[in-house]
Amino acid sequence: MNNENQYDLIVIGGGPGGYVAAIRAAQLSLKVLCIEKRKSLGGTCLNVGCIPSKTLLHSSYLYNLSKKHFIDIGIDIQGEVKVDLSKMMSNKASTVKKLTDGVSFLLKKNKVSFLEGTAEIVDNNSVSVNDERFFTKNILIATGSIPSKINNVEIDEKDIVSSTGALEFSSIPKNLAVIGAGYIGLELGSVWKRLGSKVTVIEFSENIVPTMDEDTASIFFKTLREQGLKFLLNTGVVKATRKNNKVYLDCLNNIDNTKEELVFDKVLVSVGRSPYHEGLGLEKLGIKINQKNNTIYVDNNFQTSISNIFAIGDVIEGPMLAHKASAEGHVFAERLAGNNPVLNYGCIPAVIYTEPEVAWVGPTEKELQKKGIEYKKGIFPFTANARAKTTGDTEGNIKILSHPKNDRIIAVHIIGAHAGELIGEAATALEAGLSAEDIALICHAHPTLSESMKEAASLASIGKTLHF
After folding, report:
1. How many structural domains is the chain composed of?
2. Do 138 and 191 belong together in one domain?
3. Is 323 a catalytic site residue?
């Protein structure tokens, strides 16, 4: 056996879960090989997901701000504000390259071997890549997910696109349909609406982002409509047809069964993501798969039904979030090295990077009510926050849910500017088991948006606050 091809751990997938697991395992003195079929590391998140979409969200936000709101605060931009889409896309590509190159550097720095290619698991101790066999004590599957599809709607990444294609439009669509009102659809719909598209969001269910707190979702829905996004709820897409450089969508209303044909320049299919483990040879190995959602079955230590083969991230049960995969990768590596950290899935935050942002950690009120769990709540609006007044970002609020007997924080839901940053304090408080009173008594800097967390906590704890 070639010792150069012998490892303690082979990681299949170089995304946020895989590369974190590989780096941490190497830091813990394991010999690690990371295999990735893309030329660049970082997985969907860095290449065609989180990073490019947030770059375009920021660019489009600045454009919208300068075009519509600068004049309100005394900044008069002479002449028309225009979009240079080519330069905007170039900036996005540059950001992506810097980060993917950064991951490559980190693998080298931590002495993780890297191999570009498509992997197949031969058995629980060996993997084949590019017709070469590599041997290992352990295998980690971290191959992520791919966009889900709809029957009779064929994605060509030109006229009918997935999130990948929606990040690469060469011109601003005049009329864009977004099928699916989840995280990705609303974020990318917001990008193109700000840049000038007429956007129609078609959603099969009666609500947008069904996992969101209902009060928060109500504010969110109202705000997005005020921004100009059009919504067709309770509506399914039966078929898509291309004619004369247009896309015709046959839509069916779920309530009254009425049919309608709508015409668009581009269509974004954004109906969620599906676990991706095709070509690994799992069926041949007999690795157990959850038939209902195609996820790989694992136990509490991320071990599959075969000894020494593990899985993390989007290919297993749980929210398909980059930071969830990274957390699992870190914990997996620690456990493989003999340590025993705990990952609290109840403390994994979720963020939607629209404007306003939406973020939450812990259960919704509806979920608590279904389980018969009692709670208190405190809601503090950003209209009463000094920092929000100075920036004009007064939309939204912070809601804190706490236990009625011991005041321990159960959940936090935020809609407003920088919600994705503010949720960090909430996740820390939840993980540490803090009470609402604990947060209420902590001195927060003034003026900051974080003061609203203190105020909401005071309302949840004693029902009173100083500034509202």
Report:
1. 3
2. no
3. no
Map residue 459 onto helix, strand or coil: helix
Residue with tokens 């500034």: 467
User: Do 264 and 169 form a contact (C-beta atoms < 8 A)?
Assistant: no
pLDDT at 72: 84
Q: Which of 69, 323, 444, 446 is catalytic?
A: 446
| Global pTM value | 0.96
Q: In which order are the strands placed within the sheet that holds 235-243?
A: 235-243, 246-253, 259-264
- Distances, alpha carbon 463 to alpha carbons 98, 379, 458, in Å: 48, 10, 7
Q: In terms of domains, do 211 and 331 share one?
A: no
Q: What is the pLDDT of residues 270-322, one digit of tens each?
A: 999 999 999 999 999 999 999 999 999 999 999 999 999 999 999 999 999 99
User: Residue 153: what residue type?
Assistant: V
In 3D space, the residue among 122, 101, 100, 103 whose CA is nearest the CA of residue 112 turns out to be 103
CA distance 256 to 259: 9
- pLDDT category, 456, cuts 50, 70, 90? very high
Closest CA to 39 of 47, 50, 31: 47
Q: What is the CATH number of the domain that holds 21?
A: 3.50.50.60
Domain boundary among 343, 378, 403: 343
Whether 33 and 168 map to the same domain: the answer is: no
